[in-house]
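Human:
Focus on the backbone:
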Amino acid sequence: EQEVENLSGLSPNPEKDIFVVRENRTTCLMAEFAAKFIVPYDVWASNYVDLITEQADIPLSRGAEMKGKCGTNESELELSWLDQAYTLKLSFLKEGHNTSRGPEASWRLSRIQFTYDTSERTYFKDAVSPGKHTASSHRLSALVTPAGRSYECQAQQTISLVSSDHQKSVQLLLSEVRLQPFDIPADFVFSEEHKCPVDQREQLEETLPLILGLILGLVIVITLGIYHIHHKLTASQVQIPRDRSQYKHMG
C-alpha cells in the first residue's frame, strides 16, 4: 500500500516544496525542489485583429495535491494545484548499462508532462481561445544519477517542454533540487548525494582560490627555507683566494 505526504510546510523556503511517497511504511520516493513554469499564450492586440504573445509565470503551489507510484525500475510523482487547473507529472526510470568498468546502473528523469488551463484567471489574463493544454518533454534524459544515490542541484536548471498550444515552448525552471525516486536507505533519509555539474563547478570556483593560495604560501615557505639553508652553507665554507699572491698570507 502506497501513501503520499506533502511536507512543504517543513521547508524554511516558501518557494521550496517537499514530497514523500511511502510504501509499506517506508519511504520509496522523496523529492524537494522549487519549480516555476513560464508559459507563453496569445491575447488580442488593442485593435482586436492581431494576436500578441504574453507570458504567464506559474509557481508550483505549496498546497499541491499529490499522487505517487514507486516501482523497481519506474517511479512517478504527480502534483496538481488550483483545483487541478495545473498538473505536473514527473516520470523516473532506472536502467543498467555496460561501461569499461563493467555493468553499472543509473536513474534519470525520463518524462515531464505539464497540463495547464488558460481559462484559469490567476496567471492567465484574457487568453484567446482559453482551454486546457499539455506541455511535454521529448526524449528526456535529465538529472542522471548513479543508482543508489540521490540527485542534488542548488543551481537553477531550465527544461523546455513542447505545448499542444500551437507547439509553443514552455520552460520549467527547477532549483534547490534534492531528489531520489529509487533505493532510499531508510525512512525520510536520502542516500549520498550526486551533485550536478553546475554545482560541482561552482564549488571548484569557490575552493580554487583557497587551494592556489595555500600552494603559493607553501612555495614561498619552501623557497625561503632553501635560501636560508643555502646561505648558511655558503657562509660556513672557507673562502679560498683565487689570486695566487694571496697564498703567502695563509698558514
Remarks:
- The first strand starts at residue 2 and ends at 6.
